[in-house]
Design a protein that fits this description.
The complex is a heterodimer of chains A (342) and B (336). Chain A is globular, with a radius of gyration of 26 Å. Helices cover 73% and strands 0% of the residues of chain A. Chain A has 342 residues and is mainly alpha-helical. Chain A starts with a helix and ends in an 11-residue tail after the last helix. Chain A is built from 15 helices and no strands. Chain B is mainly alpha-helical. Chain B is elongated. The chains are: A mainly alpha (342), B mainly alpha (336).
């Protein structure tokens, strides 16, 4: 198992380099120079009528800034420098506020990860029973209703639902049932007793979590349903029924156990949404997570932050894929590590 | 009727037809396609025909003709506002407005009325017209994106699965790369840095989501390439390309149709999300997502939130249910 894990990790290095290089190319080949943008907001604002000496001075300052940021070197060299620093967990500094990118990401990462873990847990807790239930009698009316319902939820655009919730339930002109922004109340104090802190936190994340979970029921419950249906045709199920086990035991013990195995791999498919998936929800509900950070950084052409986010989220995803594969081999004895690559 | 006399397609259609939900979705999609194709005849500020000075003209047909460069506008109709034109007779489409033209004579933010069935937006543009023409944009994006994804996915997945070995190892790294990249963040990043254009949006969405198809086709090709019929075809001297695309691919294609349906749905969702965020899609273009974006700033204008929201919702639901119905119809385990 260790040998397999090491081999997989080694194979992930080129993938990781590939992801970061693509992100790097996109950011650097795109029109829009961060130095120009930086200067337009500040020093060079409204200089069109300035004297030639002043303009030359500004040009020199821009040149210096480009040199300081390393933007005057050829692209591969810039990438090499960036990657070398990455190895020591140095992601450079933000163009926008000159803060360390790593610090900016680190303070927001726990928010997004908590949000996503809670959402994932809720999704699994609701979707798996739904999938089991609709597989018991496929094409019966309960199955029909569940299917229609989960697909309707899946088709609701989260930015639409989020905006409607914000308008109608979070202050706005209608009801103030949930807070419109942030993760803590204004009078929040860290000295509050635990239940009060937890209560305040869940009150704040309830709507963002709702927006992140409802769409995911469809995929998971449908996979669960077809996994159950597949196992229901196996010989061991017929044996279980033949020896007189109740339908309940057959379904919940025999079929269910084997049907849960593929659910592990789905975890890996859900992980890449860590940044992107939260982007819209975090932006709408002003949750200070990495999705919001990423969106703001993209709009501000803050290359180091965007790159850092690509690097971190793809590293996390690769790690997630690896863990899912290893878990799969652990729960399913039929899968040997040597053959798992296939 | 004996099972043997039916082709695979007929068998699938028979199964599919039993699923009323999926059938209704199929008809819904066909209706929407009709709206998209005939958008210019449903919502247009030109009449179907107009009689000016005793002569009859067909402005919408003329518009198509001049767009193709076949006809030119006759003198009395050149650069004319048809609603102010002194015509003996004119027959306008049911929604006599163009979606893009800001009309200052119209009231902005007017709620639904007999004149504007679904109200107007902040520039006095007719929402109903925007919805009809938005259907064209949404469906085009959905279909083009699905086509790009399927082409790329089938080609790369086929190569990896057919040849195996180091080609597979290398391509699998590419698949892993596409899997590890945070897709929506990538889409937002690329859409934000490129100049806004629908073609760019289609290219971005098409080139990011194909990895699911590729991985599926790869594993199918793995399974099929060593089966007897492929070995026999190879022994007959067929080329690799013929083996891949004429022998193996047709046997792996049916489930890909399911993916195509889901892909159209998710592409429509992604495009509307981009329009909503206001990136990638040109600012003067009216799409379902861009109407929704206006409603976010102007919460009193409920008609700007409700109609496009439900349009996206119903379209995406229809494509998803169609995909689900297809999947069930193709699944032999559910066949009774």
């Amino acid at each position: 198992m260790l040998a397999y894990a090491v081999r997989r990790i080694l194979l992930m290095i080129p993938t990781f380099v590939g992801v970061t290089f693509i992100a790097f190319l996109i950011m650097h080949l795109a029109p829009g120079d961060p130095v120009e943008m930086y200067f337009h907001g500040g020093l060079a604002a409204g200089v069109s009528g300035a004297s030639p000496e002043r303009l030359a001075e500004i040009q020199r300052a821009k040149q210096q800034e480009r040199h300081r940021l390393g933007l005057d070197r050829p692209l591969p060299a810039q990438y090499a420098i960036w990657f070398k620093r990455l190895v020591t967990l140095d992601l450079g500094e933000s163009f926008k506020d000159r803060r360390q990118v790593w610090d900016k990401i680190r303070e927001r990462l726990p928010v997004t990860i908590t949000l996503n873990v809670i959402s994932l847990l809720i999704t699994y807790l609701i979707a798996i029973p739904l999938g089991i239930y609709s597989s018991v009698r496929p094409r019966s009316w309960p199955d029909s209703i569940i299917t229609t319902l989960v697909f309707m939820l899946y088709s609701l655009p989260s930015f639409w639902v989020g905006t409607l919730i914000l308008i109608y339930f979070c202050g706005g002109d209608y009801f103030l049932w949930f807070p419109p922004a942030g993760l803590h109340s204004l009078d929040y104090e860290s000295t509050w007793p635990l239940w009060r802190r937890l209560g305040d936190y869940s009150w704040h994340i309830a709507m963002p979590v709702l927006c992140e979970t409802y769409a995911a029921f469809a995929a998971l419950s449908r996979y669960m349903r077809s996994s159950m249906l597949e196992n229901a045709l196996q010989d061991y199920v017929r044996t279980a029924r033949a020896k007189g086990l109740s339908e309940r035991v057959v379904v919940l013990k025999h079929i269910l156990r084997n049907s849960l195995i593929p659910m592990v791999t789905l975890l890996a498919d859900l992980l890449p949404s860590l940044v992107g998936g939260s982007l819209i929800v975090e932006t709408i509900f002003s949750v200070p997570g990495i999705g919001q950070l990423g969106y703001q950084a993209v709009l501000a052409r803050d290359y180091p932050v965007v790159l850092g986010l690509f690097a971190i989220s793809s590293a996390l995803t690769l790690l997630g894929i690896l863990i899912a594969d290893l878990l799969l081999a652990v729960v399913d004895p039929r899968i040997s590590f040597a053959a798992a690559e296939r | 009727m004996s099972e043997r006399s039916q082709s695979f397609g007929a068998l699938v259609w028979r199964e599919f037809r039993k699923n009323r939900r999926a059938l209704a979705s199929l008809y819904g999609i066909l209706a929407l396609l009709a709206v998209a194709v005939f958008a210019d005849l449903i919502a247009n500020d030109m009449p179907y025909y107009v009689v000016v000075g005793g002569r009859t003209y067909y402005p919408i047909a003329l518009d198509y003709g001049s767009w193709l460069g076949l006809t030119s506008w006759p003198e009395p109709l050149r650069d004319v506002d048809f609603k102010k034109l002194q015509a003996e007779r004119a027959w306008f489409p049911p929604i006599p407005f163009k979606p893009r033209r800001a009309d200052l004579s119209e009231e902005s933010f007017s709620p639904p009325s007999a004149r504007h069935w679904l109200g107007t937006d902040q520039l006095g543009r007719d929402v109903a017209s925007g919805m009809v023409h938005g259907a064209r944009i949404s469906l085009t994006i959905g279909i083009v994106v699905a086509a790009i994804q399927l082409t790329v996915g089938i080609f790369l997945g086929g190569l990896a699965g057919y040849y195996g070995g180091w080609i597979d190892l290398a391509l699998s790294r590419v698949f892993e790369l596409m899997l590890a990249i945070p897709t929506f963040f990538l889409i937002v990043t690329v859409a934000a840095v490129l100049p806004p254009s629908l073609y760019n949006v289609m290219a971005i969405l098409g080139l990011t989501g194909w990895v699911g198809v590729a991985r599926f086709i790869r594993s199918e090709f793995f399974k099929l390439r060593s089966l007897d019929f492929v070995v026999a075809a190879r022994a007959l001297g067929l080329s690799n390309a013929a083996l891949m695309f004429r022998q193996i691919l047709p046997n792996a294609l049916a489930p890909v149709l399911v993916t195509a349906s889901f892909t159209v749905a998710s592409a429509i969702l992604a495009e509307s999300a981009l329009s909503f965020l206001g990136i990638g899609v040109p600012a003067d273009l009216v799409t379902w997502g861009s109407i929704l974006a206006v409603s976010e700033q102007n919460t009193f204008a409920w008609w700007l939130a409700v109609f496009p929201g439900f349009a996206i919702f119903f379209t995406v639901t229809a494509y998803n249910l169609l995909g689900d119905g297809l999947r069930d119809a193709l699944d032999p385990r559910l066949r009774v």
